[in-house]
Amino acid sequence: MHFQCGPHTLDLSRPCVMGIVNVTPDSFSDGGRYAAAEAAIAHGLRLVAEGADILDIGGESTRPGAAPVALEEELRRVLPVIEGLAGQAGVPISIDTYKPEVMRAALKAGADIGNDINALQAPGALEAVAGSAAGVCLMHMQGTPGTMQQNPQYHDVVGEVVQFLRARLAAAQEYGIAPTRVLFDPGFGFGKTRAHNLALMRELETLCALGRPLLVGVSRKSVLGQITGNDVDARLYASLSAAVIAAMKGAKILRVHDVKATVDALKVVAAVNA
Questions:
Q1: What is the pLDDT at residue 28?
Q2: Which residue out of 104, 168, 220, 255 is catalytically annotated?
Q3: Is 202 a catalytic residue?
Q4: Residue 36 class from Cβ within 10 Å (0-12 exposed, 13-18 middle, 19+ buried)?
Q5: Using CA atoms, how far apart are residues 265 and 114, in angstroms rounded to an integer?
Q6: 181 among known catalytic residues
Q7: Mean pLDDT across the stretch 51-65?
Q8: What is the pLDDT of residue 67?
């Protein structure tokens, strides 16, 4: 299986790693650490050196309860980082945003993937990507970051996520976005309880059977804290366990904070799967 994103074609015959670069003062894990463009660029290059196959740049925290960031501020945060990394990282650059204006500007600045927690549902989002050769990641979320963890409810979480992702793929195709340019993300932690997250992980093969590469992002998330009792800075081992389980169940891309440790763990997965 391959994923086409701009000039890049990712071979997903082995699990790949997407390294997280948060250019924000308030992200749940490393907020503020890389808020300056120079620090974020250096961090991104360090993640590539550790084995990251993709870099995901975000300028607005989407943790539960997060307040929205103004368009101009998000652009100010992410564009210098994308421009700084696009010429020297050597791997695809992803922009983590749900704003069509940010997505369009980021793609122009050198990003190769639009990673949208809102699955290109905002007015103009499909058009922002369709006019490019960029890849897209379509994620499921119930509610908004500000409200999503206020008693999320599902009749059948796996079935509803499957139905949603199929519908968003069809919408993307209507705008000329080829399936080879599409990733799916079930949205762990985005409008899901511990039980919902675990149900999705248990039945990950069902999501993989949709035919598009599955991206899983569970790194350091609160569900791991609920299971282990550990604070966010002490969730490395739990994050590695989740990444390995996801890869063994068919996930093709793991979105993580701890790149080197995850790369090493996934080498073992790849060796076993081979």
A1: 45
A2: 255
A3: no
A4: middle
A5: 27
A6: no
A7: 91
A8: 79
3-state helix, strand, coil in the chain (%, to 5): 45, 15, 40
The mean pLDDT of the chain is 92
- In the prediction, which pLDDT does 35 show? 60
- Any residues with CB less than 8 A from the CB of 17 and at least 6 apart, and which? 51, 52, 53, 54, 253, 254, 256, 259, 262, 263, 266
Concatenate the DSSP letters of all residues of 203-265 into one string. THHHHHTTSSPBEE--TT-HHHHHHH---GGG-HHHHHHHHHHHHHTT--EEEES-HHHHHHH
According to the model, what pLDDT value does residue 151 have? 80
Count CB atoms within 10 A of the CB of residue 65.
12
Contact 164, 140 (CB under 8 A): yes
- The CA radius of gyration of the chain, in Å to the nearest whole number, is 17
Mean pLDDT for the stretch of residues 83-101: 95
**Rounded to two decimals, what is the model's pTM?**
0.93
- Spatial separation of the C-alpha atoms in residues 132 and 120, rounded to whole Å: 14
Q: Give the model's pLDDT for residue 33.
A: 56
- 30 burial type by CB count under 10 A (0-12 exposed, 13-18 middle, 19+ buried): middle
Query: Which residue in the block uniquely carries the two structure tokens 């704003």?
Result: 99
How many C-beta atoms surround the C-beta of residue 87 within 10 A? Answer: 8
CA–chain centroid gap for 43, Å, is 17
Sign, CA torsion 182/4/198/229: negative
At residue 24, the pLDDT reads 83
Please identify which of the residues 99, 192, 220, 221 carries the catalytic annotation: 221
Say what the pLDDT of residue 34 is.
Answer: 52
- Confidence (pLDDT) at 217: 97
